[in-house]
UniProtKB/TrEMBL annotation:
Its main location: membrane. Belongs to the sphingomyelin synthase family. It is found in: Membrane. This is PAP2_C domain-containing protein. Keywords: Lipid metabolism, Membrane, Sphingolipid metabolism, Transferase, Transmembrane, Transmembrane helix. Residues 162-233 form the Sphingomyelin synthase-like domain. Coiled coil: none annotated. The keyword Transmembrane helix applies. It holds the Pfam family PAP2_C. It is a multi-pass membrane protein.
Length: 301
């Protein structure tokens, strides 16, 4: 992959930007997603079928509304598309993309490990699960191929495999997209924060009404996605300040990847959240869409 030159907010160039690092982060994301599908295809045959749903406080208080999952998926798709737009139009899109891709990848890898470790009964007696078989290589491969393209969205393909419950994938997508907007959107768009927070709450409540996840799954989805996003950005800031050894989070496994992904990134005091239309013509500067003059290190999630 070619290198690019990262522009400073006031004009001029700082350092050569290695775009291949962003593609490595994208490969990590793809690996995390495929890992989840493989694990789901394998654990499907290990999900208890003779036991009813586990006790859940939300389920005991509210009735089941099966079609409410459509609300969740609509909001989730909206939030994800919004986050992709934030990344694409950001003037430092290659840096933002690698950070978000890695955070999503780490969240999904953690989710896959949790699914491997514990299988629980489905949350609703109305949930259809395909017949269980012996988990041979051919069976698992066929399931992976048949479910990969739907990206876990039931509106695209009805759910037939069961077992991916412990950490909600919908919640990971929702809150990673939400944090991406909060962290990287220009100041002029921050007025939408409250609206997006409300939408995220509606989405996770709809998941519970649909009985697609237990309450603990949704809670863990929020905790995992938020924690990983904040750990990465905390370590990123410490790295650029040459203070990694002073950050207790540097003992986290994520710290291993920070030097690679942040080596050619702008330091926080030069990182400005500003939108530009990517130029398709060489030597023609990008068109400014929406400026934001506040320094990155003053942002809050």
């Amino acid at each position: 992959m070619g290198n690019d030159t990262e522009a400073l907010p006031g004009g001029g160039n700082l350092k050569s930007l290695d775009r291949s690092r962003t593609f490595v982060a994208l490969l990590c994301l793809i690996f995390g997603w495929i890992f989840n599908i493989i694990v789901l295809a394998w654990v499907h045959d290990r999900v208890p079928r003779n036991d009813g749903p586990l006790p859940d406080l939300f389920f005991s208080l509210f009735p089941e509304v099966p079609n409410s999952i459509r609300i969740t998926e609509f909001i989730m798709l909206f939030m994800v598309i919004n986050a992709v737009g934030i990344i694409y139009f950001h003037q430092h899109r290659w840096i933002v993309a690698r950070r978000v891709f890695f955070c999503v990848a780490a969240s999904y890898i953690f989710r896959a490990i949790c699914i491997c470790l514990l299988q629980v009964p489905v949350p609703s007696i109305n949930t259809y699960c395909a017949p269980q078989q012996v988990s041979s290589f051919s069976v698992v491969s066929e399931r992976v191929i048949s479910t990969f393209w739907s990206a876990g969205i039931e509106a695209l393909r009805p759910r037939v495999l069961c077992g991916d419950l412990i950490v909600s994938g919908h919640t990971i997508c929702l809150f990673t997209a939400l944090h991406t907007f909060k962290y990287y959107a220009p100041q002029k768009l921050r007025v939408l924060n409250t609206l997006y927070n409300i939408m995220a709450i509606i989405a996770i409540i709809s998941i519970l009404f649909a009985r697609k996840h237990y309450s603990i799954d949704v809670f863990l989805g929020y905790v995992v996605s938020t924690t990983i996003f904040r750990i990465y950005h905390s370590l990123m800031y410490s790295y650029h300040q040459n203070e990694m050894d002073k950050n207790l989070l540097s003992q986290n496994i994520i710290s291993i990847f920070i030097p690679y992904f942040e080596k050619d990134a702008l330091p926080p005091y030069l990182f400005v959240n500003m939108f530009h239309i990517p130029s398709l013509i060489k030597d023609r500067g990008p068109t400014k869409l929406c400026g934001y003059k506040k320094e990155f290190n003053n942002l809050n999630i």
